Amino acid sequence: MTESKAPRRRSDATRTAILKAARARFAADGYERATVRAIARDAGIDPSMVMRYYGSKEGLFAAVIDVELVLPNLGAIPVEDVGGVLIGHFLDLWENDSVLQTLLRVGATNEAGAARMREVFAGQILPLAERFVVTRADAERRAALVASQVLGMALVRYVLRFGPATDMSREDVVAWLAPTVQRYITAEAP
Known about the structure:
By secondary structure, the protein is mainly α. The chain has two domains: 2-64, Homeodomain-like (Arc Repressor Mutant, subunit A); 74-186, no CATH class. The chain has eleven helices and no strands. The protein has helices spanning 2-33, 36-43, 47-54, 57-64, 82-96, 98-107, 111-124, 126-130, 136-159, 163-167, 170-186. α1 packs parallel to α6 (98-107) and α5 (82-96) crosses α11 (170-186). It is elongated, with a radius of gyration of 19 Å. The N and C termini lie far apart (66 Å).
């Protein structure tokens, strides 16, 4: 029994090493400049192993950017706290998940990354916005506005590292952005 588990453990360890190296390489070099050879070198394996597990650079990228935002249950919090809860949640995600930072970097320069970013936000923020409005078109606008705030802050704070944005405390970021996100989600449409 131990022998049958050993190859599986090596396989899992190899996949984990590839994904870790790919996240770092895509984040540092972007999609276009990252190569399977460089990723394999960073993972300490032969490039054929990357192809074996992921089929192609595109397949590897898709695995790297598999993102679940795991949004909080807004039904369990007072409506007037929605903006603050969402901003706090997104700060947690950006600070603790390098995949989102990689996706943002790549999404800014690569259509596949941008498409995946759109899918993530449409699939996960749109349903949240739909809870507060009557029409889907209104929900889509609101979700896009929320994304503009969340992605804008993520870009200047975690990717471009603009001093004023990186110097702000978490509490300040929430205090500044929460009212805007709150309005986008719950206010009457203009």
